[in-house]
Specification:
The chain has 2 domains: 82 residues, no CATH class; 67 residues, no CATH class. 68% of the residues lie in helices and 0% in strands. The chain is elongated, with a radius of gyration of 21 Å.
Length: 163
């Protein structure tokens, strides 16, 4: 029973985090899946043929990724999935829209954001907390100016002088 629960959670996790997008007419029959994929996706065996080809492709790709993960990676993925499930619909919508915005950026802009995030993560926890608190106290206009300054800095563009 516990194994079925893990497999179900794993399959749901893979569905939620999978970013694979394939053509609608591509089809993955149950028989075309590897034994490992069938084991992971076992709870869906009876309803597999009712899924859209796109959903089948996402699930099979996710199951393939899942089988390649170490035990620690699987544990971390489950933890992330649980955190995602605990978010409100509004919080998920914000995350999705920010993700799409990020994907629409140039590679240089994305690299700049990653550098800034890495820099933030290396800061001592007190300093990160202080920056978060200061940001939360700002007005929306002040926040927008800070975000623009950070974008300009990340992409090495000259900053406007209007402070």
């Amino acid at each position: 029973m516990k194994a079925k629960w893990r497999v179900s959670i794993g399959a749901l996790l893979l569905l939620a985090i999978s970013g694979v997008s394939l053509a609608q007419d591509e089809h993955n029959s149950w028989e075309s899946l590897s034994e490992e994929q069938q084991r992971v996706l076992g709870p869906y065996a009876d309803s597999w043929s009712t899924f859209t080809p796109e959903r089948q492709a996402r699930l099979s790709a996710g199951a393939k990724r899942w089988t390649g993960m170490s035990r620690g990676d699987r544990k971390a993925a489950k933890k992330r999935f649980q955190a995602w499930r605990n978010l409100s619909d509004e919080q998920r919508d914000v995350i999705r829209s920010r993700y799409l915005e990020f994907q629409g950026m140039s590679p240089g802009d994305r690299a700049g954001i990653r550098r800034a995030y890495d820099s933030f993560r290396r800061m001592p926890p007190d300093r990160r907390r202080e920056l978060r608190d200061r940001y939360r106290k700002m007005t929306p206009d002040q926040r927008q100016r800070v975000r623009q300054r950070l974008r300009d800095r990340a992409t090495d563009r000259p900053r406007p002088t209007d402070r």
